[in-house]
Sphingosine kinase 1 (Cyberlindnera fabianii), 403 residues
Amino acid sequence: MSRTTLPLLSVNGNPYAISFEEAETKAHINYALLEEDHGPAPSISTDALPLHITTVDLITVIDSVRSGVGRDNRDIYATVLAPLFKKLAIKHTYTQTKSASDITNFARSLDLSKSHTIVLISGDTSVYELYNGLFSQHYTGTAQPLHVALIPFGSGNSISLSSGISSIETAIQYLFTSSTSTSLPFYKATLPPGTHTTTGTPITTPLLFSVTLTFAIHANLVWVAEQPDLRDVGIDRFKIAAARVLEQDLTVPLSLTCATTGSPSSSSKQLTKSTAHAYLNVLAVPCIEKGYYISPNSHIDNQQLHIIHFDVAPPDDLMSLLSMPYQGPQTQHIHHPSVEYIAVPKEESIFIEFLDERVEKSTCCIDGIVVRVDEPKGKRVQIDSVTRDEIGFDLKVVGMNAI
């Protein structure tokens, strides 16, 4: 197994490198922090730390240990982060998640009258749990600075990738040296009565998202992958789920409209020409996994949603179309005759109405959390841009440099 060593930081005048091996799964394992010079690296010292470290009341490191492929031989905190915190005399609290509700509960109890920097060793789902937990506080006081430093350890890492945080070593450099933190825009999804998760838990309040809200083939794939017989299979569960989904009827009937009134009206505009969708995604980011530029005109720091629709097609044709975004940010899939790509002004509400009575045709995935709606026909999902005053906090991503 080959080992890679990369320059990381110069700390108090001493060079440090990060070293790791690559497993068969392509995951990086067996991290090590080496006091060696392997080339130029950002410089930092104990008396010149960035404001998100020196001016906040509390620094908390949360390790979502089940994110991505887990933490077997992948303890980045113990091997790299903790030694750097010690060398720079940075006081902090470290915690590992023990249950799926830990991050939500942490966010619900966070004292927003104090300033915080939260270091998340995780994927997108943990970020989703963090900001929806904060949202559930309905905080009305004067919110203090709230920074989040992302160390991407998930399967997709859409928020990190779209923020220009392309690797774990880049994320660590930003954590200790970045002088910028940029507000993360949010969108609110108001779901109809009868909405529930894969485990049957009812959803009775609006949810925030910052990446994507999707229907049809993508949402159904996630729903199948979350079923009990696949949940513990690992990354291969998505391949198994895809095979099952492609055997099903891929048509999902939905009507998409938008209006500035906050509710559907006679002045509502139809967004997609077709109401038969094989793939439907409402996107705030350009890529939902590394190298997959599904919405090239989206920018995570610009509060505007884009809708992308694929017509129903034979499975082979659909899979060919779904692979086109891997061609890069200049991909031409948005100009394909089977695709509709629409920018929605942030002042307009989006309404997605279910046109089919079957519950399986209501599957919706919101930043990785998948839900269905009982007796869906005629019910609607409403999507709105929201301000920090409306949600009670301003979550700033450390080092965001949107692609």
